[in-house]
Amino acid sequence: MPMSPVGRTARWVAAQRALESKRADRLFEDSLAEPLAGADGFAMAMTARLVRPGLAKDAPDPYIPIRTAFLDNALLRAMAEGDLRQVVILAAGLDTRAFRLSWPPGTWLFEIDRDEIFDHKEVVLHAAAARPTCKRTVVRADLTRDWVWHLTAADFDPMRPAAFLVEGLLPYLDAAAVASLFEAIGPVAARGSWIGLDVVGNSMLTSPYVTPFLAFLQDMGCPWRFGTDEPEALLKRHGWSTTAVCPGEPGAHFGRWPYPVLPRDLPGIPRSYLVTGWR
Question: What is the pTM of this model?
Fold first, then answer.
């Protein structure tokens, strides 16, 4: 079954992880990314390179590797610090953390996404004889519907704290859907739960500097709709205490960020945020 436009972006992200994995100085290694991406994912990655602001078309993409490595590190650190053993990846796409990270004993990871994603993903994983490094449960659910019921029906325990990962999703939602998502997470995120996510700033949606890239997304049928330059305030409204860093700042550079890192209070600058925190 053909994937929806947003579903296809999961192949694009997998292609970026595969390209990173081929580097001698790679930030992570994902042997499953290449077959998951397929030709379609690499074609999108190559097309996206032509419309990125400020980078040569043959330059590697800096954002996805930085985002992946940052959230890898933050998630594993949270598992240790909070003694967490439940992990929920919302809009999991072609994420392979269940297979490539070294999880604490007893970790149970729940991946939530639509049928179109898992119809592709599970076939590829089976063909690769992939074996998870934790207990892994696939939850087939649409995040715009009652996904919480599906999660608890899969034996997720809402009374125990968990780590929630929301990666690469929020820009594709509108403001009402973002609010609904965090409202839905609230009742199943016990005290002591952790969250990690990324979100773009408002100027990323309006800056002429980013127009060609935004047009690329529009033409694909998956435009970006949501941004905020106050991610900590957004999460605080939903019961989370978080901090946000921009790619290129300490802890989110990895020697890869090619752009100037400008103060957050400087208006009109396209930026994105990597957000982590606790409930």
Answer: 0.97
